[in-house]
Amino acid sequence: MTEIDTSVPHSARIWNYWLGGKDNYPVDEAAGDAYTAVFPGIVTIARSSRAFLGRSIRHLVLEAGVRQFLDVGTGLPTVDNTHEVAQRYAPEARIVYVDNDPLVLAHARALLTSSPEGATAYEDMSLFEPERILEAAGKTLDLTRPTALILSGILGHVADHDQARDLVRRLMAGLPSGSYLSVNDGSRGTDPDYEQAQDGYNETGAVPYFLRPVEQIAAYFDGLELVEPGVVSVPLWRPDPAPDGTAPRPIGQHGGLARKA
């Protein structure tokens, strides 16, 4: 059984805390609160990223007819995980989650609650092993059929942008025509307070996460057909109407969805 160290904060558990999940410890809450004291907007970013994921999956299922999902760098289960959203609209949907974090692995059983008609699987692998990921995913998914690759908040952990682009290209190369790429990541150029807070966090010795200019996030979709409205701040991507009628505001998190021709 994986040993969980509860004496030091953990980035996946901090993100879980910001999302309102329960898979975290007091040390994570303290670290999360310290970050929000510097930049309160991080909670909005975390929840807006999760909301974008849900809307993009809903589009993929209901409008694009996709029934297979490969979610790499899934993190800890919270609310509206990929399989929950997909199977809400299409119970027969099949999902493969990929992560190489021992903490996430310890919680994998919480993810493996597929509808009877569909399937979910969990693979313990690194983003840096795209060909192995595709091989393992092929045990659960039919990779001759359109599949949606989900990369939510993971590419910022790859320090070199060219390497991150290459990893995306290699993963998409293993998926057939009609497949989709969904990416959202922290961005520069919208919120200086977020940039200052994240740069400071990276200097603490924690696992760094690099915010990138919007054009670098857009470059992940090179060679693919972007779905309208393209690469935008995530609250602006096909937003649901707000109960109070207010318009969504841009934040330092950009994303998009694109189809492989």
Structural class by SSE content:
alpha/beta
Strand content of the residues, in percent? 15-25%
| SSE order, one letter for each helix or strand | HHHEHEHHEHEHEHEHEEE
- Alpha carbon gyration radius: 17 Å
Anisotropy-based shape: globular
Give the tally of β-strands: 9
> Could you estimate the helical fraction of the residues in percent?
25-40%
If you average the pLDDT, what whole number results?
93
Terminus-to-terminus distance? 43 Å
Helical run tally: 10
Largest sheet features: 9 strands, mixed
| Parts with pLDDT < 50 across at least 5 consecutive residues | none
InterPro entries: SAM-dependent_MTases_sf, SAM_dep_MeTrfase_SAV2177_type
Keywords: Methyltransferase, Transferase
Region (Disordered): 239-261
Organism: Streptomyces viridiviolaceus
How is this structure best summarized?
The chain is an alpha/beta fold and 261 residues long.
Task: Give structural notes.
- The chain has 261 residues and is an alpha/beta fold.
- The chain has 10 helices and 9 strands.
- Strands 1, 2, 3, 4, 5, 6, 7, 8 and 9 form a 9-stranded mixed beta sheet that branches.
- Helix 1 packs across helix 2 and helix 3 runs parallel beside helix 4.
- The longest helix has 21 residues, at 42-62.
- The protein is globular.
- The model has no long low-confidence stretch (mean pLDDT 93).
